[in-house]
Amino acid sequence: MNTDSLSQLEKLCRAPIPSACQAVLTNYPEILRHAVRADDGSDAEGFVSEAELLADTAEVLRINREVRQHSILDPEGREFSWPSAFLVIGETGDGDYYCVDTAGEHEGVLQFRHHTVEFDTVADSVEEFLE
Fold first, then answer.
1. Cα–Cα distance, 94 to 107 (Å, whole number)
2. b/e sequence 23-33, b meaning 16+ C-beta within 10 Å
3. Residues of the chain with pLDDT under 50
4. Are 80 and 72 in contact (CB under 8 A)?
5. What is this structure's pTM?
């Protein structure tokens, strides 16, 4: 990741990008570039680097801009806007996102569930998420 992209992400998040995320974005694990998402071992559902943990810095920027563009309604009809400190690092392919809290209030990797409009912890750290 170049410094301009990192700067743009930090501006969006209004906080420094955590070092573990910077490490992944600047030195993406080669094994994940070729890891497939399909249970049958085919690339029919694409690669991990295209979804769960994005490898393309342009895509990381795009998706982080996208989630901040519009608010949505939660199940109770309240307006929800993406928390500025939450950095999207991937997606499930079903409308949910994986993210980290750059402000450090929430540890680990969170999954945003769009149907319930809530966040759940899916890994205690970026390193655990990589595994």
1. 24
2. ebbeebeeeee
3. none
4. yes
5. 0.94
* Cα distance between residue 68 and residue 76, in whole Å: 21
Contact 9, 87 (CB under 8 A): yes
Instruction: For tokens 């969170």, name the residue.
Output: 110
Q: Which element (helix H / strand E) includes 44?
A: none
DSSP string, 72-126: EE-TTS-EE---TTEEEEEE-SSS-EEEEETTSSS-SEEEEETTTTEEEEEESSH
* Two tokens, residue 105: 């209030």
**Token digits for 43?**
């690339």
What tokens appear for 23 in the block?
């490490």
CA 73, distance to chain mean position in Å, is 21
